[in-house]
Design brief:
The chain folds into two domains: 10-61, Homeodomain-like (Arc Repressor Mutant, subunit A, Orthogonal Bundle); 76-196, Orthogonal Bundle (Tetracycline Repressor, domain 2). The protein is mainly α. It is elongated and about 55 Å long. The longest helix is centred in the first third of the chain and has 23 residues, at 11-33. It is built from ten helices and no strands.
């Protein structure tokens, strides 16, 4: 490279650094407790670059959440053809929450920050509706319980795996073990299987 010529700015690399910094900040402090200044400092850029690339905090929070929700959906696919699938889903969800606690934390911050529609709500509703429809089909085939409506069964299955990820200290205080303990994981999976059993 000739002296005096500047290297081309790596726009995509810089955006990725900002998103990673924003993810860390939002996980730790939520949308309202985070500042663009802290995100910029963590990413090694100036505030103006963050604003130019992403707008403000709400847009950046929505982007971070969109990415993490999509990662979760891809990492923990749901196929509801029977009890074994429910157990497998619950097992994968517990493992995912253990390995990637940032998603559940971002969802908790989202719940605190929004009282009405949340970022990308329509797309997320569609994704949840597809899973609920799979549960309904399995119920109609006699493979899953019909004592609960499909949407309520779906919510409860998510809640079983999500509770420990959201408040692991409560699990530890009650059971004396962490959410990474096999006894806890096995109990969640068994509870899901029993809940969904026809």
């Amino acid at each position: 490279m000739e002296m005096g010529k500047r290297m081309a700015w790596d726009v995509e690399g810089t955006k990725r650094k900002i998103i990673e910094a924003a993810t860390d900040e939002f996980v730790a402090h939520g949308q309202h407790g985070t500042t663009i200044e802290r995100i910029a400092k963590r990413a090694g850029v100036n505030k103006e670059r963050v604003y130019n690339y992403f707008g403000g905090k709400p847009e950046l929070f929505a982007l971070v959440l969109r990415e993490k929700v999509a990662e979760g959906a891809v990492s923990v696919p749901y196929v509801a053809t029977g009890i074994d699938d429910v157990g497998g889903f619950e097992s994968r969800l517990v493992d995912f929450n253990q390995a990637h606690p940032e998603l559940i934390r971002l969802l908790a911050w989202e719940a605190l920050a929004y009282t009405d529609a949340v970022p990308d709500e329509e797309k997320r509703v569609e994704r949840y509706a597809r899973r609920t429809d799979e549960i309904r089909v399995a119920q109609d085939a006699g493979a899953l319980t019909t004592s609960l409506d499909a949407d309520m069964l779906h919510v409860l299955l998510l809640a079983l795996a999500g509770y420990g990820a959201l408040v692991p200290q409560v699990v530890r205080m009650i059971t004396g073990v962490g959410t990474d303990d096999e006894r806890y994981r096995a109990a969640v999976v068994e509870a899901a299987r029993r809940l969904a059993a026809p």
